[in-house]
Design goal:
The protein has a single domain, classed as Rossmann fold (3-Layer(aba) Sandwich). About 45% of the residues lie in helices and about 15% in strands. It is built from nine helices and seven strands, in the order βαβααβαβααβαβαβα. The structure holds flavin mononucleotide.
């Protein structure tokens, strides 16, 4: 039976989407079956249309990525959750998805799963760590086994995002891209041990 990893994220303008792709690629390189999913967009059409990059992402990327459902968390042995920062917190879109996990949590289905987080912000000190930690708060409540990048790999050490790989808005640098991939590898490797 192959290892099952879900990469679930929200992205408005594509940065977190790119991080998610690297994390998924890392998990797949360890032989995992990956469900790559975006959470539902909740913003009104006029808000999306007011930002060219956001509209482009909705038009060009959304049709190619399945929407996350709660069953994806039940299915997965381990998962990665990602969101851009919104004033130091994750987006309402990711939170809305999280807020639907009550029944799964109540049934104890999320306890013991491997879990890791990732994020993005437009400024170097604009809330990367607080957003990663805010998403991680949920993982404590679920009883998930948090698998942070730490400085546990050369790629993670170079990026220096121990709470979860984080990017500045825009195309990923080589360093961040490698760190996100290494985070996916590490998620898969440690989740494999949990499943065993
Ligand atoms: C409402 C709102 C609040 C934001 N708050 C912050 C913030 O506090 N600090 C920051 O650096 N960037 C902030 N940003 C910028 C995004 O987090 C950033 O552009 C991120 O890289 C977007 O990721 P995406 O391309 O995956 O959508 C904010 C953006 C929006 C729309």
């Amino acid at each position: 039976m192959s290892l099952k990893i879900a990469v679930i994220y929200y992205s408005a303008t594509g940065t977190v989407h790119e991080l998610a792709k690297e994390i998924a690629a890392g998990a797949e390189s360890e032989g995992a079956e990956v469900r790559f999913r975006r959470v539902k967009e909740l913003a009104p059409a006029e808000a999306i249309a007011s930002n060219e990059g956001w509209q482009k992402h909705v038009d060009e990327v959304h049709p190619n990525v399945e929407e996350a459902v709660i069953d994806d968390l039940d299915w997965a042995d381990g998962f990665a959750l990602g969101s851009p920062t919104r004033f130091g917190l994750p987006t309402a879109q990711l939170k809305q998805f999280i807020d639907q996990t009550g029944p799964l949590w109540g049934a104890g289905k999320l306890a013991g799963k491997g879990a890791t987080v990732f994020t993005s912000a437009s400024t170097p000190h604009g809330g990367h760590e607080s957003t990663a930690l805010a998403i991680s708060n949920v993982l404590y409540h679920w009883g998930a086994v948090i698998i942070p990048p730490g400085y546990a790999t050369p790629e993670g050490y170079a990026a220096g995002s121990p709470y979860g790989t984080s990017a500045l808005t825009g195309p990923l640098s080589d360093v961040v891209s490698a760190a996100a991939k290494a985070q996916g590898v590490r998620l898969a490797q440690i989740t494999k041990k949990l499943v065993a």
